[in-house]
Amino acid sequence: MNKKKINNEGIISKLRLIIKSGKLTIGFKTTIRSLKDGKCKLVIVANNCPPTRRLEIEYYALILHSSVHRFYGSNSELGVVCGKIFNCSCLGIIDLGDAVIDNILT
Hints:
alpha+beta
């Protein structure tokens, strides 16, 4: 449990940096669209994302060689991290900007 909390804090700080300097898509439909176009490098999925949607995202990510990270928080927490006032079950990162996320995902 403690490792999950540390992992979440690290990804939260990196997400804020990506929001300021990079490019991302928020929401299921736009994430799937960016995966199909081959633009998406990383997908972050909330803990309470419906299983069918999560499996669909993981399927497209597997086919198109993108990685999927599970955010250990609800969709409302993920929306707050992104600076939005609505829930977001998944988001796709297109451009990392100044962030380096290799050590966070392990």
